[in-house]
Each structure stands twice: as structure tokens, then as C-alpha cells.
Design goal:
The complex is a heterodimer of chains A (171) and B (294). By secondary structure, chain A is α+β, with helices and mostly antiparallel strands. Chain A contains three helices and ten strands, in the order E-H-E-E-E-H-E-E-E-H-E-E-E. In chain A, the strands form two sheets. In chain A, strands 1-5-7-2-10 form a five-stranded mixed sheet, with helices on both faces. In chain B, helix 3 crosses helix 5. Chain B is of the alpha/beta class and 294 residues long. Chain B is elongated and about 75 Å long. Chain B has two domains: 191 residues, Spore Coat Polysaccharide Biosynthesis Protein SpsA, Chain A (Alpha-Beta Complex); 73 residues, Roll (Ubiquitin-like (UB roll)), CATH 3.10.20.30. Classes of the chains: A alpha+beta (171), B alpha/beta (294).
Chain lengths: 171, 294
């Protein structure tokens, strides 16, 4: 199974965690990003994720490989949802198994941070007000506003649109 | 003989029998951007699309050193203009279809010839581009099937000589021009100067290594906000944009894109690419809006 993949159906985390089990690993860390009901003062009704999958899978696999090489973890994987998601649904899952907890935590953090910045995935928020918008895109829309920004800088949202829940288990 | 359903072989004919009166110099010998005479460029370009290439000359031009380098077909009719070259070619090889090319089309690109040949209606009398200027057939970058020969002879026998009117009256398959500048012909010194500027504006148009203003087939896929603003997920287009930067500018002129290139990244053939990388024929391009995974 690819270390990075997309799912158009709800992510089953049990099987994903189990696939990372290894007798040499005493630490497992996972990150789950959930759909939150608000962002920047707007009430979010549901979300839509879209990806340029051919490139996204390549870039996602590179990120996971970087994390393994950099932190010396044993296994790592990431699954991201595409399509329509309701509030509370799991949008992204990252799992890392390692001999000890420290490298597992750090690799897990590295993967989710890099995925958010580098992988061509887009999120459209549909608000209770009836409005909608592509996160990180609408605010760039004023042509002059970002004229001085360096090329290829992808501004991070002020707040994450998916809430963070970290799960870690000792083995 | 070939099977009845098989298209006749396609030969190429570059018309170099003109008198270049308005130019005041032999148009076939004019260089564009480098030292190569236009006749040589046209023969090389055409050679990629046909089985054999001939140069159409007047009888008194046959010994001209430039024209003598190529296989020639000498005109057998006088003073009836470019149609004479085609008549002589059809008489010499009646089984062949002829892709006829004027030798004063310096902006003609490979993609336009590819499009013409792939859109060829071998069961029709001819295949031609519909002029982007007046909607009429363009006769001097067109394919004439063997079955057009009799009609063409009859046409000339009644004293007519305009090949454009011939195509309008014949069973001609008409294609839209993928590159509206490709068939701009050059008749005067002023037009020659403008064409040189065009050809050399972004480096040599004939060498493939550098960013080129030759037209090329590009597929563009749109995602997220750009998909909504373009109103489509994907399109195949023919463009002269030398790099993704000019391509985005071209598309931004067509669609109400709200994102400037400074906040986008570009991917070529499903890998991150450079805004100034030369685009090649067949490339698939994606402009990547600011991402928001997680």
C-alpha cells in the first residue's frame, strides 16, 4: 500500500494503525484532522476536498519518505479524504511507528505540517450563511494585495479548518 | 493499387514559382531569424508530414541554385498563378494527394500542419483551413486529393485561376485554424520585417531546445477555484506561449481568474515545474492554487 493515498470514503483508522505495527516499535503516534464547525468566525456546514491526485500522491510519498529518513522512524503513512465531508468527519490521518515516542511524535508532526503546505489539495468551506469559499484562495484574490509576496508562497490559514486530535499509544 | 478504403499517399509541394513582385526580392530566399532561406525551412517543415517533398518552380527557375537543391516539379501552365504548380504536380503523380504550401508562410508551425493532416478528409476533394480573417478556405496550406484533379482542370479550362474560389466551390473539408497567425503570408518588405520580429521575439522558432513561440498542443487541467472560474476541468489547446508564464497570462485573458501568478505554482506532466521552463508539444500543465490540505 502506498504510504500516501486518498480516500473518497470514510477512513478506517483501525486497519491503518494495525498495518504500521512492528515488533521493533515501542511507540506509535497518530494525528487526526477533523472537520470543525467554524473557521475565522464563519459557521461551517460542510467541506469539500479536491486534489490533483497524480502529483499529490507523489509529493505525499516524498514527505513520508523524508520523515522516515529524517527521524529514523520505522513505518509511516498518511491518508487524506477527498469529496464532501460533514462536520466531525475525519479529513486526514497520519500514523507513525518507531522504537521510541519522541521520533514518532516528531515525524508525525513533520508529515502533517508538510502535507498542509506542499500537497496539492484544496478545501472549499460551505458556511451556514449559504456562502462558500476556497480556503487560502479567496484572500489572495485581490490582485494588489499579494503583489509583493514571494512566488509560490502559499499562505497558511490563520486557523486550521480541521481540529487537531493527537492519539498516542504505548506499546 | 491500394485498397479502396486506404487514403492516397500524401506528397508535399512547396510553391516557389512566384515572382515576388511586391517584395522586390525572391521570397523563397528570405531568411527569418537565422541564415536559413525560407524555402529550405518550408521543405524541412513539410517533410515531417508527407512521404515526399517537391518544390514547384517555373521552367526558367529550374537552374536557380537555391531551387536546384530540391526535387522539382516544373510548371506546365504559365500566368495562372499558384494553381499551375498544383496542376503540374497532379499530372506528374496523379495517384498522390498533395499538401500544398506557399513558401511565404514564415509563421507556419508544426502543430498547424499536424492538425491539418490529422483532420484530412481523404474522401473529400480537399482539406483546408478556414481563414480566421474572412472565413474562406486557405488554399496555400491545404491538401488536395487525387479526386480534385479533374475538377481543377475543368476550373482552369474555363479561364478561372483563383485557388481559393476553387476550394469554395469544391467538396472541401474546412478546419478551424489552431494558430490564427500561422498562415499570415509575407508579401512586402514591411510584412517581412514584422515577421522577423515575431519569429525572433522569443528565440529561434525552429530550434526546439529553447522556449519557443511555435504553437504546440497543450493540455491544461484546472482544479478548485481555477476550475470554477474556467468553468471546466480540462481542455486541450494550441498555444504559442513559450513558457507557463505566458500560458497563464493567455488563459487569464480568457477566464475571470482572480489569482495572480505570484500565488500559484505550476506543474508540468504531473511534476512541479518552473514558470520559465520551455513548454513542449504534448505537455500537460496544471496551475496550482494555494493549497489547503489537512
Amino acid at each position: 500500500m502506498s504510504a500516501f493515498r486518498f480516500s473518497s470514503t470514510p477512513i478506517e483508522t483501525g486497519a491503518l494503525s494495525a498495518a504500521l505495527a512492528d515488533p521493533a516499535c515501542g511507540g506509535f503516534a497518530a494525528f487526526e484532522g477533523w472537520v470543525r464547525d467554524n473557521n475565522e468566525g464563519e459557521h461551517v456546514r460542510h467541506l469539500e476536498y479536491e486534489a490533483f491526485e497524480a502529483l499529490a500522491v507523489r509529493e505525499g510519498e516524498r514527505i513520508v519518505a523524508e520523515a522516515i529518513a529524517r527521524f529514523g522512524v520505522v513505518h509511516a503513512a498518511c491518508v487524506h479524504r477527498v469529496g464532501d465531508l460533514r462536520v466531525g468527519e475525519l479529513a486526514v490521518w497520519v500514523g507513525v511507528s518507531a522504537p521510541h515516542r519522541d521520533e514518532a511524535f516528531r515525524a508525525c508532526r513533520y508529515i502533517i505540517d508538510e502535507v498542509k503546505h506542499r500537497v496539492p489539495i484544496w478545501k472549499k468551506e460551505h458556511y451556514v450563511s449559504g456562502d462558500s469559499g476556497w480556503v487560502n484562495c479567496e484572500r489572495c484574490a485581490a490582485p494588489a494585495a499579494h503583489a509583493g509576496a514571494p512566488a509560490q508562497s502559499h499562505p497558511d490559514p490563520g486557523a486550521e479548518a480541521a481540529g487537531a486530535h493527537v492519539h498516542h499509544h504505548r506499546r | 493499387m491500394s485498397a479502396p478504403d486506404k487514403a492516397p499517399p500524401l506528397f508535399g509541394l512547396v510553391l516557389a514559382g512566384g515572382r515576388s513582385t511586391r517584395m522586390g526580392r525572391d521570397k523563397a530566399a528570405l531568411p527569418y531569424g537565422d541564415d536559413t532561406p525560407q524555402l529550405e525551412r518550408a521543405v524541412a517543415l513539410l517533410g515531417k508530414h508527407v512521404e515526399r517533398v517537391f518544390v514547384s518552380v517555373r521552367a526558367d527557375q529550374a537552374g536557380d541554385p537555391l531551387r536546384a537543391r530540391f526535387a522539382q516539379i516544373k510548371d506546365t501552365h504559365e500566368n495562372i498563378g499558384p494553381i499551375a504548380g498544383l496542376l503540374a504536380a497532379q499530372a506528374q503523380h496523379p495517384q498522390a494527394a498533395w499538401l500544398v504550401l506557399a513558401c511565404d508562410l514564415p509563421l507556419l508551425d508544426d502543430a498547424s500542419l499536424t492538425h491539418l493532416v490529422s483532420g484530412r478528409g481523404a474522401a473529400r476533394a480537399a482539406t483546408a483551413y478556414r481563414s480566421s480573417h474572412d472565413g474562406l478556405p486557405e488554399p496555400l496550406c491545404a491538401i488536395y486529393e487525387p479526386r480534385s484533379r479533374e475538377a481543377l482542370s475543368d476550373w482552369v479550362a474555363t479561364g478561372k485561376e483563383c485557388p481559393r474560389k476553387f476550394l469554395s466551390s469544391a467538396d472541401t473539408a474546412l478546419l478551424d485554424e489552431p494558430n490564427p497567425r500561422a498562415l499570415d503570408n509575407i508579401n512586402t518588405p514591411r510584412e517581412y520585417g514584422a515577421a522577423i520580429d515575431q519569429v525572433t521575439a522569443h528565440g529561434s522558432s525552429q530550434s526546439g531546445a529553447r522556449a519557443s513561440t511555435q504553437s504546440k498542443h497543450i493540455t491544461v487541467q484546472y482544479y478548485a477555484l481555477l476550475r470554477e472560474q474556467a468553468g471546466r476541468r480540462e481542455e486541450a489547446l494550441i498555444t504559442t506561449a513559450p513558457t507557463p508564464r505566458e500560458l497563464y497570462a493567455e488563459l487569464a485573458g480568457r477566464y475571470p481568474f482572480s489569482l495572480g501568478a505570484d500565488v500559484l505554482r505550476v506543474a508540468i506532466n504531473s511534476e512541479f515545474g518552473d514558470w520559465t521552463a520551455p513548454l513542449k508539444d504534448g505537455d500537460a500543465v496544471v496551475f496550482i492554487p494555494p493549497v489547503a490540505g489537512g
